[in-house]
Design a protein that fits this description.
There is one protein chain. The protein is mainly alpha-helical. About 90% of the residues lie in helices and about 0% in strands. It is rod-shaped and about 125 Å long. The model has no long low-confidence stretch (mean pLDDT about 85).
């Protein structure tokens, strides 16, 4: 009888050990799944956070860009009036209409460069506006290059109307300063 009790106890302990081992293995599998899920969730939260930071950065950049656009436009208005150029008649932003009008007129009539050179030379306010425009536009392009991770946006500005106008105004300013 004692042997049966000992054998029963050993069998009971063995069965409990096997059941415990089985439960421990299942528990480990669940812990791995939970770890994978939490890692995935963490990575997803990090991605969401990065997207929100980028959107916030883009919104901030857009707001700052609008202020810069208005500042550049304020410099262009007296320049356009002095050399008698009208902005484009499109639905673009006023800055792009103004720059487009200047660059379109220059494409049709290269004498516009000479007209601007003379105006810069004779009118100190226009010279100041051209200098200020060049400084602000260059600073804007440098900021875009520094913040644009893939370079698409900054290349668009550099190769577009802003970059073309910088070249145009820099040429006129250089010609006006060499004629003294």
């Amino acid at each position: 009888m004692e042997n049966m009790i000992i054998a029963g106890t050993i069998i009971l302990c063995t069965v409990c050990s096997i059941i415990s081992l089985f439960l421990l293995i299942n528990f480990r599998k669940h812990i791995r799944e939970i770890t994978k899920t939490l890692t995935y969730q963490y990575n997803l939260v990090v991605k969401i956070q990065n997207v929100l930071k980028n959107k916030s950065s883009i919104n901030e950049t857009t707001d700052k860009a609008e202020i810069i656009y208005q500042d550049l436009l304020q410099d262009l208005i007296p320049i356009m009036a002095a050399i008698d150029i009208m902005p484009r008649t499109t639905s673009e932003h006023p800055l792009w209409r103004a720059l487009g009008g200047i660059m379109d007129e220059y494409a049709k009539n290269p004498f516009v460069l000479e007209k601007l050179r003379r105006t810069i030379k004779l009118d100190s306010n226009i010279a100041h506006n051209v200098g200020h425009y060049l400084n602000r536009a260059n600073m804007f392009l440098q900021h875009m290059s520094a913040t644009d991770t893939d370079g698409i946006l900054s290349t668009t500005f550099t190769d577009g109307l802003l970059g073309q106008s910088l070249t145009f105004f820099a040429q006129a300013q250089a010609l006006a300063s060499t004629d003294k």
